[in-house]
Structure formats: structure tokens, C-alpha cells
Specification:
It comes from Spizellomyces punctatus (strain DAOM BR117). Residues 3-8, 13-21, 185-204, 382-392, 473-478, 494-516, 628-634 and 665-672 have low confidence and may be disordered. It is built from 32 helices and 2 strands. It has helices spanning 3-13, 23-39, 53-72, 80-87, 90-97, 106-120, 129-144, 151-167, 172-175, 187-190, 212-218, 225-239, 244-252, 255-268, 287-310, 314-339, 346-359, 364-375, 383-389, 396-402, 409-434, 441-449, 454-470, 481-492, 507-529, 532-542, 549-563, 568-575, 588-606, 608-624, 636-661, 666-671; strands spanning 177-178, 209-210. The longest helix is centred in the middle third of the chain and has 26 residues, at 314-339.
Amino acid sequence: MDLLTKVRSQIEKLGPRRSTGNLLHKFQICWDTINFEVQVESNLSRNVDRTEIPQALQQMLDILVKEQSMVDRGLHTTNGCAEMFLNNDMLGQLVKLSQADVPLGFRGEVIQTISSLISLLEGKSLFHKSVNGAAVALMRSALASRDHKYEDAMLELESNISTKIHELPALLHLFFTKRPVTSNVSTEAVGGLVGARDDQDSGLDEGSYDFPLFDHLLRYVHIEGRRGDVARTSCLFLLQLQQDELQDCIARSDFAITVIAGIGGLFSQLPPQLPDLNPGGRQGYALVTFTRDVESLCGLLRFVQDVLAKCPSPDTCEAILREFRVTFLEHVVQPQLMTASDFDGTTVAVLYYICKMLDVVWEERFSSIFVRFLLQGDDVSDDQDATAIDDVELHVRDVLVSKLNSLSEEVVTQTLRFFHSLLTKHRVQVLALLLETMSEPKFAELSSNFTVDAHQHLAVVRRYFALMNTAHAAVDHGTTLEAYLEDAETALLSSRMTSRASSPTKDKTKGESITIENAELLEQLDRLGRDATLQKFIGKLSTFFSHSMEINLALTGVLSKVAASPHPLLNLYLFSSDILLGPQHPSLYVIITRLLAEVSTKRAQLGEDVFDNRLEMTRAALYEGDWVEGVGELDLEGEFVKNVVVLEEFVKELVAVLVTRGEVSAEEVAFV
């Protein structure tokens, strides 16, 4: 007799067969089958897949769904199967029957069944003790066990519960309860430790809460992969709830520590040197794995910011920000940056990782802490930051700025890309920290009152148009002025300059006022011209043709972002066509004019036809990504020509910034 025949004969002995057309009868048969299978002695050596348990559980779910559908359509008057299922606590019995996981895999089948049931049922069905009690029992068991065999199924179950709570917050009290004050309560009995960090050995205090759902999710909230994604999504649903006791419980938990520690762990496991990022090149470190690890780090950063944006608890948010600054930035990022070498690839790698993180930083408080950590100097403005920074003799800012003069071309390029990333997303804050002069009250006051005459502005635009023509800028390849205007308009949308009209005054008073303002203006421009950090960027532009094209691409990108700032005095300094402050403080116009003179000299040396032909070939190769044979050779003349193309593009970017900032009309541009 085969096993199936034996099982059926045993079931028939349990009672007389009833009509199989009756849903209740079918439901009872499924339940009897499960109970019988659990009692079979050979189960100790069998897998659940070799029994009828999975099929019986699925049939019970199908019957419950079918019965509800018949009731909804008026074909059935009562939910007999559902009443039997709930009133007899079949879910609770399944949890107990599967506790020993015999036959092997039975526990997993029960977890999946309860998860599917909760997903299928309306949220209010969770109010029934048979449903929520079985789920809580599974979560307590998972917390007490070190066996993670069914963790995916448990996380799926908890995800479904969190979704229902998010949709119906009144369900929260079924899974989040206050613990009774007692002197002899074991951790295993009450589940996790959320809200109980301050409990003494003698018992649990009045502020202790029992929240096994969150406790179990917290184990996975910081890890990579699907498990981490499910846990984070579920936690975010719970963190958004407005209940005061819940928010107090989460604030007292290890949530902030766990999540930020996860960020630190992901950052620390990234390779000390970058792998070959070219898919066609050799890959000492699997590029796929590397890309996944970087994305995992960025994903956890996005999650933390989502929590800051959606969690109503100030205490939880403050804990996250504090842990991010102290635990991650100071104790993970800073040591790696301070000890990195320019000559073994470690500096390039750390800067690359910081840039990747900056690309996904958007939450205001989070980004402010990150930017201040990177650029804060000695002039700390509040006590919290003083605690974090004053003990460091050499600031992170000093190290970053010093890398602009590194002997490693790769380090210089990556440092410029780092500053470009900062300026792209946080320009106003970055400039105020990066250029010390701009943080001075007097500078801010003069900037707010400084106005630019429309005719003067058009004169500046005209001069830069002339520079663009002198540079022999291309008019094809999709790099026309109109294309740059679109980019510049996007960049300047939130920081357009507006002129402030002067109130009429008497001539004498007006004349005296202008004299005083001009003196103050020249003083502040002189201070700006002596700003050490700004001069590092300006100085590198002065030696433009001594750099590689990669450095100059990054450098002009940084200067374009600086030039697009909303600060009128900085604009006056950068765009002035005169050497107002002497040759030691040249403007962009003066430097570009000198560089174009070098281009003219080189053209004369090579011959205009030869130079212009090679320039056109280089443009085509760079713009279209189709490198012409012979153009890519690493010779000085080839690098010079490539840099000429970069200079052309830089001039067009500056023209676009000027036109867009001044809101010059199409007719005026045509006239110019």
C-alpha cells in the first residue's frame, strides 16, 4: 500500500465521509489531513514537501477566499469556514503544531500561510485574536531563536502586518503594548529589548514596551539585499505613526545606532582602491559586486533621509543626526580620509565614495551636517559642532583643499570632481563655508545692497561674446549657446539675481554715499581676491595649458558653478574685464584673455590651417565620442588642442551664465 492510500484510509477512520460539495466539509478534511500528517511517525525523516500539508494549507486558504467571494455575491449567507477557522484558533494551533518543525519545513509553511492570509484579509480581520495572536507568537519565537532558517518568510509576514498597520493605525495596539512592571521577567518571555535599554536586573520599568514586530525588523534594517529592503520599508511604515508612546519607544531603542552602524559597515567594506570602472577593462575587484556595494551604501543613506523626513519624533531624528555625525563621519570617514595616500589610490577611492554619497544627500538637516563636516573651518558657529570639530587639529577641510596641489593627477581630478559635486547640490552653503570672505557680515551686507546697471551688464555680456568668438567656438555638435542657456537657466532658477532700486536722495548725500560704498566695495573685493581657497581655483586656471584635459574639465566645471552663484560681489570679481585690484588678483576675463593669447601663439607656430584642422578633428572626436586615429596620442600638442576645446566650452558656459542671470532678452542677445 502506497503512502497516499494509507493516509486516505486513516482519514476515513476519523469519521463518516460527508458531501465533498460542502465547503465546510472540504475545509474540515484539510484540517484533519494536517493533524494526521503531524502524527505520522516517519515524519522525523521526511520533508514537508513529501506530505499533503502544503496542499492542505493552500486548499484551506482557497476555500476561505472562495467562501468570502460567495458571501459577497449573495450566494452564501454565512462564513462557516471562516468562523470555524477563527473560533477554533486554527492559526494558533498551527503555530504550536509546527514548533518542532516536524516534518522538516512545516514551520516555514505555517509562516507563509499566515502571511498570505493576512495579505488577503482586510486589515480589520487582524483585530481577531486568532490572527494577531498567531503572528505575535511567531515573532516572539523568532526573537528567541538563533535559527534564521525562515527569516525571509518571517520578514514577508512582518511586511504584510506593517502594511496593514500603515493603512489602519488602530491595529498598532495589537502589536505594541506596555509591559507590566514585574521583578522577574525574562527577556525571552517578553520578546526584544525595544524601550528597555534602561531596565535594571530587578525588573522592567514603567517606560518599557513590548514590540516584537519592530524588534525583529531591527535585526535586518541595516543589512544589504532584499531582506534589508523589506525590513527598511516595514520600519518606515511604523516610524511614520503619530502615537506618542510608540515614538518614545523607538527613540529609546537602538534604531539610530543600528542604522548608522550599518552605513559605517557598508562604507568600510568598500575596497581601498577603486576597481577598473571601465566595463571593457580588467577587473581585479568584480565590478558587479563593487557597483552593488556602492548602491547598498547609497540606498541606506536614502532610507535614513526618508526617516528624517517622515518620522514625527524629534528625539529619533536628533539621535540619527548625532550618530551620523559622530559615529560615521568622525569615526569612519574622517580617519580614512586623513590617512589616505595620494600615491596608492586610497585618496581617489575615498573621494569617489564621498561624491557618491553627496549625490544622494537631499534632506536639509542631513546635508547640512555632511557639508559642515567636510568644509567647516575654525569659526564654528554652535556648541554642537564645536564638540564635534574643535578637538581636531587638522580639519577635513584643510586636507581636501590641500589635495588641489597634489602631485598625483588622479587625486587633483577627483578632488575637483568632489568640489563640483558639492557645488552642484549645495552651492550657497558650500560657498559660504569654502570662501571664508563670503561668510563675513560686511560682505553679505554689501552683496544685498549692490546693484548692477543693465547697460553695464550688457557690456560685460558683449565682451564675453567676443571671447567666445575669439576662441573659435563650434556652432554644431549640439553645443550651441542655446544648449548652454538651458543648462544655465536650470542651475540659476533658484538663485536669480534681482536688482534693488536706490531710493532718491539729495545729490550731495548721494555722492558721499557712493564714495563710502565704493571704498567698502573695493576693500571687500580685495579681501575676496586674497581668499586662499578661491585663489587655488583661480591659480589653477592661470596654468590651464599645463594640465591634462581631465583636470581642466573638472576645474572649469567647478568654476562654472562658482560663477553661477547668486552673490553679486563674487560675480563682480569673477566677471570684471578690468584688473581692479592689480595683477595679483586677475578676474576670469583677464585669465581667459591671456589663455587665448597662448592659443594664438600656438596657432601661429603650427600654421593656421594645420592648427584649425586638428582643432576641428579634436572637437568632432570629443563631442561625438568617436576618437579619430592620431588625435588621442599623448603628445603635448595633442593635449594642448584638447584643452583648447575645453576652454571654448568654458567660455560658452560663462556667457550662458551671464545671459541667464541678467535675464537678457532674445533681442538684446541678437544685438550683442
